[in-house]
Amino acid sequence: MQRLLKISVVVLLMPVSAFATSLSIQVEEGQVRSTPSFLGEIIDKVVYGESVELVKEQGPWRMVNTKRKPGWVHQSAVSESKVELVSGGDVNEGASGKEIALAGKGFNPDVENAYKAEHQQISFVWVDNMEKFTVSNADVEQFIKQGGLRGAGL
Length: 154
Fold this sequence. Notes:
There is one protein chain. By secondary structure, the chain is of the alpha+beta class. The chain has a single domain, classed as SH3 type barrels. The protein has helices at residues 2-13, 97-104, 109-118, 125-132, 137-147; strands at residues 21-25, 29-33, 42-47, 51-58, 61-65, 70-74, 78-79. A five-stranded antiparallel sheet has the order 6-5-4-1-7, with no helix packed on it.
C-alpha cells in the first residue's frame, strides 16, 4: 500500500511537459504575443514547421512554450499534425521559409509563374503590392476604436 502511495506521488510530481501536446507552426511566420489578442505585443516569432508546446487554450488562442519563451499564438497558426521537412536526393540549396509555406499550401513560385504565363491579360501588380503591405499594431488599435469593433480575440 505504501509503495502504491509513493508511485502515485511520483506520478503527480512529474512535470506537466511529460504529458504536453506538441503543435507545429503551419504559417510562414507566426507571431507570439504577450496576451491572447491580435493587439498583444509581439514578443517572439515562430516559423513554418517549428514545434511548440501547448500550455493552455483560451478561445481561439493557444498559450505555447517556444524554444525561447512562452506566449500566445492564434489557433490558425498551429496544427496538431507534425511537419517534417525532408530532402529527397541531391539538393544543393535549401528552401526559403516562404517556399516551404507555399509548398505546404500546394503553391510555389513555379506554379505562380505558370499561372501568370497562362493569364497574361491579368495584372498581378496589386497582388504583389498587397503581399508587401504591413499594418502596425497602433494603426489596428486606432481602427478598432474608431470603428467601435468588439469581439472575441480583440
